[in-house]
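Incident review: delayed structure delivery

Summary: a single-chain prediction request sat in the queue longer than the usual turnaround. Root cause was a stuck worker, restarted by the on-call engineer. No data loss occurred. The affected request and its eventual output are reproduced below so the record is complete for anyone auditing the incident later.

Affected input:
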Amino acid sequence: MGAVVVGQLARDLVMVMERLPDVHASGAVRQRLEQLGGKGANQAVGLSQLGVATALVAVAGDDPDGDALLARAALDGIDVTHVVRRPGTATGLIVEALEDGGRFGTVGATWSTCRRVSC
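Output delivered after worker restart:
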């Protein structure tokens, strides 16, 4: 039995820091991680790691980030043939700050529904 996941595919940019900065302040980033992300893609990876044949239905831009994320998902064993590539669109980006101890905050996000000329 397999699974089909319908959801977001995005690039996660995670900045690891000792402590999240206060409002209107900055903090030192200790580590920067870039990885396949988005709620749909995360669920698909988890299912695939459990040995479930998994397909992802999502939207990605027609940019190099989209190419890299789809290649990563395929390497993770996910069928990405149903991911729509949207011309003239940047692939989604989620920026998160992660504090030692696990507290985190989403700093910003863009989605593949956003046209390059208007984002």
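Verification: The longest strand covers residues 10-17.
Action items: add queue-age alerting; document worker restart procedure.
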